[in-house]
Design a protein that fits this description.
The chain is mostly beta strands and about 450 residues long. The protein is built from two helices and 31 strands. Strands 16, 17, 18, 19, 20 and 21 form a six-stranded antiparallel sheet that branches.
Length: about 450
């Protein structure tokens, strides 16, 4: 409440003169009424809604705060013009949820007011937007059948009509499940005949879209015999083989799903990996977490092709490479774009989790070298360290007053037999650190 003092003058006669008395009369002006009325939610559709309200006694601007939790109204929408009537469109809401909101208004003087938090439901939110068919692919057209694949921008079911007359598509099939990725095999096509195909997708709110294409299959059903070819790798030392992984690729003459069984024992292929979720003619998969310098055996199975054909390859094999030590033991490395610092020991790496451990163990920032991320993928990762109580594998240490330098490996200290052995193993004299006698390790074998 703001008080304004008006001055009234009263004049009185005193003797031959006049006396003017100033009498101060307080007059109070009240702040504007910022009442918020007529709050209404409407047009809840297509992941948006309209919130309307009035401030009948003052022109205000408004802000609406919205969220799925009444303690975290994390979305903000504004009505930026001073007005008595307000309307804000809130977007990014989802169906079958309850949303909480509050409205804050302010006049031109800066006076403001907030209403209590309210809520609304999107259970009945309508969707009037047609689904989009993002792409279609004629995967295969042969042997009296067609394999189609397409994706939509939202979950849809599908109806497929096809025939030789574009005005009368007499054959019909479909996919009942609501999905974004779709695939189907259509049968009973004549060889060398052009067919018209129409895909119609429908979302859960009955909105539809269609797309047309043509196919001319070649061949007949009796010739549809599934075969696997172009298998890679086929010999040791190929680029697709690394110390801890392999890329296996192959082709099938019919679109099929596929899987690989593999292991180190040819009599028991204990591991399995799915190659193709969808029907494909070209197949490729990367298998990781393998052991270096190890022979692996594998078979390829292709299945679910046209007419449910399936086939399994003969037993095949490959040998993983040896780990190539890119960095000498004791190196501190950090992959470009990553903050993690590792200590290298032979073919292993140990992450030093924080600065307290790093500097507490005596390491220096100048020792850390930035490397290509792919250069570290073949190293086995040891358990990380987060304290300065004991040094990880790869550290070079010596004790006070002693000349023997040790290499820490497997939580044991291995004496380095001579200066020649030190240099031969690629160690760096600058990385030798003196540790207290209280830092104990088991005894390991000499390094010569």
């Amino acid at each position: 409440m703001k008080a304004i003092n008006n001055i009234n003058l009263k004049v009185f006669a005193v003797g031959m003169g006049f006396v003017a008395l100033a009498i101060f009369t307080p007059v109070f002006a009240y702040a504007q009424d910022l009442s918020v009325t007529g709050i209404r939610i409407s047009d809840i559709k297509n992941n948006s809604a309209v919130i309307e309200w009035q401030t009948p006694n003052a022109k205000t601007i408004g802000t609406v705060y919205v969220g799925e939790n009444q303690t975290n109204l994390d979305k903000t929408f504004k009505y930026g013009a001073f007005s008595f009537d307000h309307q804000v469109v809130i977007s990014g809401i989802q169906k079958n949820k309850t949303y909480f909101y509050k409205i804050a208004v302010a006049d031109k003087t800066g006076e403001s007011r907030e209403i209590f938090i309210r809520d609304f439901s999107t259970k009945q939110m309508a969707d009037t937007i047609k689904p989009q068919i993002l792409d279609t692919e004629l995967v295969e057209s042969a042997y009296g059948a067609v394999v189609l694949r397409w994706t939509t921008n939202e979950d849809t079911s599908s109806v497929i009509k096809y025939g030789t007359d574009i005005n009368k598509l007499s054959n019909k099939s479909g996919t009942g499940a609501y999905e974004k990725q779709h695939e189907i095999i259509l049968y009973d096509f004549g060889s060398g005949i052009k067919y018209h195909i129409e895909i119609t997708v429908q979302d859960k709110d009955k909105n539809t879209s269609s797309k047309s294409l043509t196919a001319t299959p070649i061949g007949v059903k009796k010739d549809a015999q599934l075969k696997i070819s172009n298998i890679s790798p086929t010999f040791f030392g190929q680029d697709s083989i690394s110390a801890r992984g392999v890329e296996i690729s192959f082709k099938t003459n019919l679109a099929a799903r596929s899987m690989i069984n593999y292991g180190t024992d040819p009599k028991k292929l204990s591991s399995k990996i799915d190659v193709s979720k969808f029907l494909d003619l070209e197949h490729e998969v990367e298998i990781g977490n393998l052991q270096p310098h190890t022979t692996y055996f594998f078979t390829i199975k292709a299945y679910d092709s046209l007419y449910k054909e399936s086939v399994t390859s003969e037993m095949l094999s490959f040998e993983t490479a040896e780990v190539q030590a890119r960095y000498p033991s004791g190196s501190l490395v950090r992959a470009k774009g990553d903050s993690k610092v590792y200590v290298i020991s032979r073919d292993t790496k140990t992450w030093i989790e924080n600065g307290t451990a790093f500097f507490g163990l005596g390491y220096k920032s100048s020792w850390v070298q930035e490397v290509d991320p792919t250069a570290l993928k073949d190293y086995t990762e040891n358990k990380s360290i987060n304290n300065n109580k004991i040094h990880p594998d790869g550290t070079l240490i010596k004790y006070p007053g002693k000349s023997t330098v040790y290499f820490i490996e497997g939580n044991r200290k291995r004496p380095i037999g001579s200066a020649e052995a030190f240099m031969r193993n690629g160690f760096n004299w600058n990385w030798v650190m003196t540790v207290p006698n209280s830092e104990r390790y088991g005894d390991g074998s000499y390094i010569n």
